[in-house]
Amino acid sequence: MTLNVTDLFRTYGDFQLRVDLTVARGEFLSVIGPSGCGKSTLLRMVAGLEPADGGSIALNGDEISGLAPEKRGIGMVFQDYALFPHMRVADNVAYGLKLRHMDKAGRKSRVRELLDLVRLTDKADDFPATLSGGEQQRVALARAIAPSPSVLLLDEPLSALDARLRIDLRREIREVHDRLSLTTLYVTHDQEEALTLSDRIAVMKQGRILQTGSPRSLYESPENLFTGTFLGLSNALEGRLQAGWFVTEEGIKVIPAEGEDGDGVLFFRPHHVMLHGEPAPGRLPFEVTRVEYCGGWSLVHGAAGAHRVVVFEPAETRWAAGKKGHLAVGADRARFFRGE
Ligand SMILES: Nc1ncnc2c1ncn2[C@@H]1O[C@H](COP(=O)(O)OP(=O)(O)OP(=O)(O)O)[C@@H](O)[C@H]1O
């Protein structure tokens, strides 16, 4: 099923949400943005849990915005699992099937199939409170997909879990999506989740979608500073375009850059900059303030003039706090953004 959201509109006091978004059949699309940008509101409107002030929500071209939530063919998973505490795991999963009047034998076999899928067959008779957070979220996932929805919506489903579990469960969620050929809309504020899980990501700010694209294109070629800095580690050096060069506030001509003269920032990733011992034209004097060992690599923090910069280095880097060096920004990878 293709989900089409067109000019969907909602106002709360000063907050205004206005969104156009398409999730193609079989696609996994994540909406990412800071707290309060409207991600949950968007998802809840698509689910029918929140009224819209205007706009259209369509599945394969059929308008669903007038339908009650249970009639939309949409499954939803929430951050806090929202399981029924007084019902056993199997009954939680069977809930939506019962609502749809599936007979007992049908329910039983479907529940078994789903508990198998989320690897919880042996927990069928347990109550939610006796399960771990990750297990409860897998029950919630099984419950959401039990009635074979055409679209699956997930609202920060991993936020309440610890880091290790989040990595395992995000892989499981993606596997379930692939195996059942679902159309999935996933909301998160976690950039790593969005980058690793999604076919496409939509970056949202203050009720608007700023850029939509593949994880790689958003990470490598953001169209604006917000998208670039929100997804992954980055550097933003203030300065100006002047006669074909990006020039820092200290007057260093860093790299050639095209465009009209004016103020802005040079944006580059920590692996788009090299740390050298020797000065050279265009290199920025840099003082290391801290080196973080990150497992297979190191993150070198430091200052270039008034600016903080982070650089990826090998795990066995020779750089250490207090050392002075010179930064060479990769001319082909850095992007200039005008003041936003
Ligand atoms: N029922 C409501 N009544 C009034 N204002 C609301 C309501 N629901 C959401 N808002 C406001 O709408 C804006 C968007 O909220 P929303 O929960 O959609 O953001 P979010 O991006 O999901 O945030 P978070 O990541 O913190 O969950 C916020 O300013 C919020 O205060």
UniProtKB/TrEMBL annotation:
List, alphabetically, the GO terms of the cellular component aspect. ATP-binding cassette (ABC) transporter complex
Mind listing the UniProt keywords for this protein, alphabetically? ATP-binding, Nucleotide-binding, Transport
- Native species of this protein? Desulfoluna butyratoxydans
Which SUPFAM superfamilies does its entry note? MOP-like, P-loop containing nucleoside triphosphate hydrolases
What are the ABC transporter domain coordinates in residue numbering? 3-231
Q: Does the keyword Transport apply?
A: yes
Report the GO molecular function annotations: ABC-type transporter activity; ATP binding; ATP hydrolysis activity
* InterPro entries assigned to the protein according to its UniProt record, in alphabetical order: AAA+_ATPase, ABC_SmlMolc_Importer, ABC_transporter-like_ATP-bd, ABC_transporter-like_CS, Mo/tungstate-bd_C_term_dom, P-loop_NTPase, Transp-assoc_OB_typ2
Descriptive protein name: Transport-associated ob type 2
